[in-house]
Amino acid sequence: MAGLHVGRIVAKLQRPIHTRMSPHPPADPIDPVPVVLGSTLVTQVNETTCGAAVLLMLEATGDPALARTLEEDPDRIRSYQLEIHERITKDAVGPIDWPKRFGSPPWTLAREARFPGVTYKAHALDDSTEQGRAILQSVWNANATGIPVPLYTGGNSRLGLDTAIPRHVVLAVPPAKQTRTSNMRIYEPSSGMLYDVPFEDLLNRKTKHRALGNWTHVVWAVLPEPTGTE
What we know:
The longest helix is centred in the middle third of the chain and has 16 residues, at 74-89. The strands form 2 sheets. A 7-stranded antiparallel sheet has the order 1-8-7-6-5-9-4, with helices on both faces. Strands 2-3 form a two-stranded antiparallel sheet. The chain has helices spanning 6-11, 50-62, 64-72, 74-89, 106-112, 130-144, 161-164, and strands spanning 33-34, 36-37, 40-41, 118-124, 149-154, 168-173, 183-188, 193-198, 217-226. It is of the alpha+beta class and 230 residues long. It is globular. Helix 2 (50-62) crosses helix 3 and helix 4 packs across helix 5 (106-112).
């Protein structure tokens, strides 16, 4: 029997998320490309800062002034990641800080995500269910309107609890131009590469994928919610 990942367990406890489904045209994959600011490849600075690297790129996408600063001062890419990691781990469980060695919990990453016009909320998902498809459809829809979305990835419980919990963070980013393909563009911070992944390839996964940091499943999506401001 196939193993369950933690997202599948938690997702069953959440209220269903109802999303209008739209048909996906055929995919048109492209080779992965490096993500750079200026001439610097943007990667996580250590093994625990994947979430911070993702939030840095999310924030820079919506803040041209920050993007220029990072392009002009490559050292700032590293220092700002560490600042973000401090924010993510602060007051994670009430007044208690999250141990930095354990990375970024989804709820504080959602709290610290900064993009114009939206706030973020973390949702566990099971990629084998209609609810999981609906959540990933919401990710695709957000990208289509220009909003990046952090995703947590992980493995299966049959490989041990250590792999079933969320283990890595990647960023689903908007397309460079308007497109009708079903692909999702995913920034993977350990490699600093941008992958083009057909939507259907993220569902009912059984094998690891480079775009997911060599994990098997998307297990949480940190979805945007409108703030009501421009």
